[in-house]
Structures are given as C-alpha cells and as structure tokens.
Amino acid sequence: MLLWLVPVVFVDAMSLHRLLHQMKLVAALGSRLSVLLISLLLGFLLPWVSAANDAEQAPEAGPAPIALLGQMSKALSELEYEGTLVYLNGHELSTLRIAHRINGGQAHESLLALSGPVRAVARSRQTVTCVLPDARAISVPRHSAHAATLHSGTLDAERLRPHYLIHHLGQSRVAGRDTLVVGIIPKDDLRYGYRFFVDKDTGLPLKTDLMDSSATPIEQVMFTEIEFLGRASADAMAANAAPLQPLEAAVSVNSGLAHSAPASAPIDLAPWSFSELPAGYAVVAGDPPATDTKGTKGQRRWFMVSDGLSVVSVYIEPDQGYGLAGHKRIGAMNAAGRSLNGYQITAVGEAPLQTVQAIAAAVRTQP
Amino acid sequence: MSEREVDQALVERAQAGDRRAFDLLVLKYQQRIAALIGRYLRDSAEVLDVTQEAFLKAYRALPGFRGESAFYTWIYRIAINTVKNYMVAQSRRPPGDDVDAEVAEQMDMGAALRDCSTPEREALTDEIANTVQDALNALPDDLRAAIMFREIDGMSYEEIATAMECPIGTVRSRIFRAREAIDKRLRPLLEG
Amino acid sequence: MTTPTSDQRYLAAMIDGEPGPGGGFEAAIDAVERDAALRARFERGILIGQLLRAEPAMPAARAVSARVAAALASEPVVMRPSKRQASRRSSSINRSAVGLAIAASLVAVAIMIGPGLMTGSGFGPSLESSPIAQSDPAAVQEYAALTEPMVERWALDEPVSSTALDALLVDHRERASASGLTGFIPYAAVVGPSGVR
Questions:
Q1: How far apart are alpha carbons A186 and A190 in whole angstroms?
Q2: How far is it, in rounded angstroms, from Cα A209 to Cα A199?
Q3: Residue B23: its chain C contacts at CB < 8 A?
Q4: Which residues contact A240 (CB under 8 A, 6 or more apart)?
Q5: What residue in C sits closest to A71 (Cα-Cα)?
Q6: Which residues of C touch B82 (CB under 8 A)?
Q7: Is C43 exposed, middle or buried (0-12, 13-18, 19+ CB in 10 A)?
C-alpha cells in the first residue's frame, strides 16, 4: 500500500518536458547520445515508483475516490483535447501525440508515435486502424459502447471491493497542472492495479500507471503537455451513444451463464463454457452466435472476461494452423493461446500472465 | 497544413492547364506512390508501369478533384484502385489489407508506409542509405539539428526557430545548407 | 534567374510548405517550373527527406515523372471548368478538418531511432534471387509476407500469426475501451511499444 503512494517530490512534468525537448536536440546530435539520454531520463522516472511516502500525508480533500473515478470516466468520454504523451514500459520510452475529438457524439482519436518507427492509431466513425511498427496496418470495426459496457461512468465499487482497494494517494503536478491521485490497488496477483493522476479542473487523467500488486509499474502513460479544446455536450453524446448501463453484480464464476448489461440479456455462450476462472473473474459480455446456424463454424466468437476492472478478451475461432500456442507479451498485454477441438482459443488482456493463461485454459466445449 | 496548401496551389494550376505544375506533383509523390504500389507488385518494371498509369489516371481525373481531401489522399486512392485493377486483369488476387481511404485522409499513411515490404529489388542500396547517414553525421551540429527537426520531427520553421533560439531566416538557411550538403554526396550515387 | 537567397525561399516553400516571397507559393512554383536546376533540387530535396525518414525509395521511380510527361505529351490538356468552387471550398474547411490535418502532419515526424534504421531490415534479399515464380499469386503473397521487415513484436515465427494476434490485440483494446475506465489512452499500449528490441 505504501509503495503506491506518490512521492512528495514528484518529478516535475515540465522538467520532464524540457528534458524530452533537450533529448530531441541531443538525439539530433547522434543516436548513441540519445540512448544515453534515455538512460538519464529513466533515472528520473524510476523514483516515481521507488520513493515511498507516509500514508498520513495523503490529502483527503476533494471528491471521494470512487467519485473521482466517475468524473474521470466522464471526462474521457466528453472532453476534446490534444497533447503529447510519454509512454514508458520497462526500459522503453516512447513519445506519442494524441488528438481526441467528439464528432457527432462519437469520439474520434488519433494517436501517433513521435519516436521510433511510425506507429499510429486512428479511431474514426466505423473503424479503428493501427499502423504497427513494421508498417502493417490493421483495421477493426468499432464497437458500440453498449455492446461491451462495463461501467456507466462509475465503477461498481461493490464489485471491486473483494479484489481491490480504492484510495486517495495524494496529489501531484502533471504537465504543469494539479492532479489528485487515486489508486485502484489489487489485493492479489491475479490482476493489475492503476494509479490515476486526475486533473483537478477537468477530471481527465493526466497520468496513468498500470502496476502490479507489489507496485511495480508495468506501464506508464503521462501527458507532458495538453491543450483542452472543449467539452462535448451531453445531448451530443446521447445522440449517438446508447446510455451506458452499470455492470450487473458479479455473476457466478462457474455457472457458465454470465450477464452483461443490461442484466436481462443473458450471454449466449453455447457451445462454449468457462470453468475455473480466476477468482473474481466472470464472463461479462460476448458476441452472440451467428444467427445463421450453418455459419457458426466459421465465425469468430468473442467473450469478455472481467473482474470489474481488469478485462481479458477471449477469441474462439476455427484453427487455421497459425494461432498462438503458448503465451506472448507486449507491453502490459499478455496473450495466451491453445487449440481445442479444432478451434483456436486466444485470450488477450492487460492482466498478469497467469490470469490470462488460466482464462484461456478455462474454455470448454459443452458436451 | 501549408504543405497541403502547396499541393492545392499546384493542383489549381494543373487544373487550369499548367502541365508543369502537375509534373511537380508527380516529382513530389512518385516515390511514395511507387512504394505503395510496390506493396502489391514485386516486379520493378510492373511497379513503374502501374505508378505511371496511376499518375496518368490522376491527370485525366484532375478536373473532378475538388480539394476536399489532400491531393496525396486522392492519388493514394487512385493508385490503390489502379494496382488492384491491374492485378485483376492479370488474374492475380489483390490483397484486401489496404488501409481504408478515410483513414488515409486522416493520417498520412504514405509516411507510415515506410519500412513496408519492399525488398531490395529497386529499393535503395545500403550504399545510398549509408551515404545519407554519413552526410547527416558530417553536418555541423546546427545544420544537423535543423534538418532533423524539419524532416524527422516535422516541425515548422517557426517551431524550429523557437527551439533553436534563432531567427526564421537562419533556420531556412540552415535547412537549405544541410540539404545542399547531403545532396552533394547523394547526387553522384543517384546520377552516376 | 534565381539567387541563393531566393533559392532558399523557393525550396523552403516547395519542400517544406513555408510561405515563400509574397507570403504565398506562386512565386516559388513559377521559379521551380521555369528553372530546371531548381526543379531537380526540389526533387532531390523531397527524396532526401524520405531517405532521412527511412521511407522506402526506388531510384528507378525517379523516372516516373519523365515517363508521365512523355505520355501526357500526346494527351489533351485538362481544364477545370470553374475555379470559383475551389476558393469556396477552401474557406469551408472546418475546425475538425484542420485538426485532422494537424494530426496528419504529425505522422511525418518519426524520429530516427538508431544507426541501424537506415540500413535496417526493410531491405531484404533481392527479388532476382527469389525462387518464387512471378505468376503465382499465392507465392507473391507468401513472398511479400516473408520480406516484411523483421521487427520483433510478438516475436512469432510467422508474420501471418503476428498480424492475426495484433488484430486481436487491437480488437481487444477497442472492446475494452468501451468500458470507459481501463481504456485511458486505450491505444497507447498498442502503439507505445516500438517493437524494436
């Protein structure tokens, strides 16, 4: 718990920005030098997580942590902004440019890597397209919020309580702005936690740390500068997005019959089922089987397994012979795959490897 | 935005019958379009043929170009259609993995296509790549920083001037001199 | 006739989109159109930028402009009926379009990450040495897959496996982002890692 607290002397974001800027200058002088500078920068970053603080120093001013998370979720869906982010994963640091706009009630986002190979994401009206480091482009359709809704702008605190602590962790400055820090701290090793640095004025998280139960950072994303462009009106948001429904209370882990919002719509898992999911995890959403009974064989099925915060997607599709066997990791994302009766099972999510593996292993075909 | 303005100025001239303006657009985008088409075709002669055809189609369609998208987005779509049609005509199956045009319009996918699957065939030799790298490394610090801010970071002259704490005219001069120095080393390879 | 100073301004306008003498681009276009040496410097200036960004380039593609010009010599000149519409359109560009254009311009800002990039794996074995027959479409696709740059990502043996897995990753992020909370900058994790080890 103490490890999750924010150091009193948090590295000043503007210093970081200036440092990054200097890094650009030096990078221009030679790539070897830039490597040295990144090492230097990491030296600045490491104290974020290693320095501990006294819990009593955490200010209790401001909204309750759960309310703060609600504000944050709302801000994420309503605010328009542009800014520069740094992304840190392990020893890898990237700079990203983000533009987030609401157009016709729908969020449009572009995310562009400013360092390293060109990587980019564009979320337009109907598709999400990613250009990956090797220039492969992948497009997937966007999904409406109600199709996989977990939250209605607020977390289901009751759902989280058995597995997470939600606490104020102090305040800090990020990108030159004052933030309140709230932590969602996992109680076991089956899930990751978050530390959000929420902008006091707007509710937008200006820094997000994904951390494991021992407070080791898995992945950190932080704005170094941000420009707020406005807030989409509630009417505009409502025009195109179905109102989000809160997640129904935890379902029986082993029932094989889970529910997503709305509660009255059971998830049709057939012909699949899940057994022995990791503690607290349940199937909360899924694509229905194809209406065409003949078409089910070739269709990819998707199910979402979640503990209310951590989310793992399970994909089941006919085995084409090139699916993932075993496990892989990229950033905070773990993937585990196996073959089952001619089908490829792949579980992907920002959760510890053992959790993702257990979820992949829990898939069964109904007799 | 201003790069797009240059293109728009060239397009309007070409639409008014100025072929030299269209020639400048071809000069500007011939490498990118060839690289794009090179994703579909592996034969370099075919790549050049289809690239040429794509520009010819663009020229003929130019009166209908309304400037609602960037010129590059427009020619990108034409190039994709041209190469797909070509492959169908050759009884080859075009891959279905190209980026949709809407995204291409939002993001300069041409830039993102770097490092794409172009094997050596007609791609630059290591010698050319090394020459550019060597020329860059040999530049004085201020010239190297200026050209990298511009070409790698995509900064405007004004932004570079702020970053380097110098007048815009100095930035312009540094970038010009940097290009000249690189060009001096590159030209013998390209034209030799 | 151009001077060194005016050359700088013309090329800055044509290559970098920096407004030239008079605040526009007309003088620069005029100069580059009529001065063959300046035109050549413009072309190589564009190419140098591509090389610095390690974009793929084909020396042979430099001939495309001449081939196009030759082919067009026998074609009628295209003329657009009215120029008024263009000015009306350009003034109607809305804020979001400007924003997207800003975003688009940012794509061009890949920072070179190391000395290996320029000589990196983007350049595979020569085509001529490929045993794959030209006429076999399956082989063409396979060859294209084999010659993809060897950037480690999921580090799977088969590129098709990596693509399939990446597609799942992106789909997962998209679906998870609908939850509204874990999806802070939902795609930072997708494009944050450079894939270079």
A1: 8
A2: 15
A3: 65, 68-69
A4: A104, A105, A106
A5: C181
A6: none
A7: buried
Each residue's pLDDT tens digit in chain B (192 positions)?
Answer: 478 899 999 999 999 989 999 999 999 999 999 988 988 888 889 999 999 999 999 999 999 898 888 898 899 889 988 998 898 888 776 554 444 443 343 333 333 333 333 444 444 556 787 888 889 989 999 999 999 889 887 888 998 999 899 999 999 999 999 999 999 999 988 876
Residue contact A31–C169, C-beta within 8 A: no
Closest to A122 (Cβ–Cβ): which among B107, B113, B141? B107
Cβ proximity of C189 and C172 under 8 Å: no
Kindly provide the residue ranges of all beta strands, DSSP E only, lying in C89-190, ordered along the sequence: none
ipTM score assigned to the predicted complex: 0.86
Kindly report, residue by residue over B39-58, the tens digit of the pLDDT: 888 888 999 999 999 999 99
Looking at the predicted structure, is the pLDDT value of residue A234 above 60?
no
Residue of B nearest to C74 (CA): B56
All domains in chain B, ordered by first residue: 2-112 (1.10.1740.10), 126-191 (1.10.10.10)
How would CATH label the architecture of A272-365?
2-Layer Sandwich (3.30)
**C123: distance to nearest CA of chain B, Å?**
5
Locus of tokens 């932590």: A183
Q: How close is the nearest chain C Cα to the Cα of A162, in Å?
A: 18
Pairing of strands A326-330, A164-174: unpaired
Residues of chain A with CATH 3.30.200.100: 272-365
**Statement: residue A155 has pLDDT above 70:** no
Is B34 in contact with C64 (Cβ distance < 8 A)? yes
DSSP letter at A226?
A: E
DSSP state of A68: H
A2-9+52-234 CATH fold? outer membrane lipoprotein receptor (LolB), chain A (2.50.20)
Q: Do C18 and B70 touch (CB under 8 A)?
A: no
pLDDT for the residue numbered C185? 54
Q: In chain A, which residues fall in CATH 2.50.20.10? A: 2-9+52-234
From residue B70, alpha-carbon distances to A46, A311, C97, C157 in Å are 43, 39, 11, 38
Query: Which secondary-structure segment (H or E) carries B50?
Result: helix B44-61
The pTM (predicted TM-score) of the whole model is: 0.47
Q: Cis ω on the peptide bond leading into residue A246 (within 30° of 0)? A: no
Number of residues that make up chain A: 367
What average pLDDT values come out for chain C (197 residues) when binned by 10 residues?
Answer: 77 91 87 92 93 81 91 73 42 35 29 23 27 32 29 44 76 71 55 54
Numbers of helices and strands, H then E, in chain B = 10, 0
With 90 as the cut, is the pLDDT of residue A259 above it?
no
Min distance C38 CA to chain B CA atoms (Å):
11
**Could you give the CA distance from residue A23 to residue A185 in angstroms, rounded to a whole number?**
33
Residue from the list B112, B137, B144 with its beta carbon closest to the beta carbon of A118: B112
Residue identified by tokens 């006429």 is C135
Using a CB-CB distance cutoff of 8 angstroms, which residues of chain B are in contact with residue C86?
A: 8, 12, 15, 66-67
Concatenated DSSP letters of C159-184: HHHHHHHHHHHHHHHHHHHTTSSTTS
Q: How far apart are the first and last CA of chain B?
A: 36
